[in-house]
Design goal:
9 helices; alpha/beta; about 250 residues; Rossmann fold
């Protein structure tokens, strides 16, 4: 456990390093959500008392992180993970007064318009947000002037539906939802609902993604198959971690 804690203590993520290493591993569903949440929120304004939607929260680790680090009230929304299961995790973390689990599909969200002060999405938005019309639906739940930030796997250049030969063995159709920051910015601007404040990559994002997966795999903690092999084959040529932070203007 001491060795695992040391392995997952990265200077790039000082807030994340305060959280239990085994907890991070046991609840993983992709690239380390706490690391991604920390980088995403470095350039977002989050204050105690704000109401935050954590969209596609998975096992609520990002929601718990937000509550503990910023004192915000979080609505932890996910489709795949049962709300009761997440509530147990939330209670164990001691933040049940700040984090409220919801199980809802991305197109049937049970919230009032203009309800949230900010919205985040970690390793989730690309699954449903590539639809040209989705942002205009989704952003109505955010107050005018509020920030919406998401971070997810992405790519360094668009494939135009042509999968690189060396990646074809590992490719899944959902990988076509990976895009560049420029692609996302153009999509967001076309909506007319937001202005983009930040569009970039997580520094050393590919290396950090691969390091996380390899660290878990070496300890038999990785629940996903094929990810390490795909990333090693890519070698950082195409894959990266993309961040977009926008602000609602209408």
């Amino acid at each position: 456990m001491v060795q695992l804690k040391k392995a997952l203590h990265l200077s790039q993520f000082p807030k994340s390093s305060k959280h239990d290493a085994m907890w991070l591993c046991e609840n993983e569903m992709g690239p380390c959500s706490i690391w991604l949440t920390e980088f995403l929120t470095n350039d977002m304004i989050l204050k105690p008392g704000m109401k935050i939607l954590d969209m596609g929260c998975g096992k609520a680790m990002s929601s718990i992180f937000l509550a503990k680090e910023f004192g915000v009230t979080v609505f932890a929304n996910d489709l795949w993970i049962n709300a009761t299961e997440n509530y147990k995790r939330i209670k164990e973390a001691g933040v049940e007064h700040l984090v409220f689990p919801i199980q809802a599909e991305a197109h049937l969200l049970p919230y009032a318009n203009d309800f949230f002060d900010a919205i985040i999405s970690v390793d989730s938005y690309h699954y449903y947000g590539t639809d040209e019309m989705y942002l205009s639906y989704f952003i109505k739940f955010l107050k005018r002037g509020g920030q919406f930030g998401f971070i997810s796997p992405g790519i360094k250049k668009e494939f135009n539906s042509k999968v690189p030969v060396n990646l074809q063995l590992y490719w899944e159709n959902y990988n076509f939802t990976f895009h560049t920051p420029e692609w996302w910015k153009n999509l967001f601007i076309r909506s007319g609902d937001v202005e983009v404040e930040f569009m970039d990559y997580l520094p050393d994002g590919f290396k950090i993604w691969l390091y996380w997966d390899k660290t878990l795999k070496s300890r038999n903690l990785l629940k996903r198959t094929g990810d390490v092999e795909m990333l090693e084959t890519d070698g950082g040529e195409h894959f990266d971690i993309v961040r977009i932070i926008s602000r609602k203007i209408n």
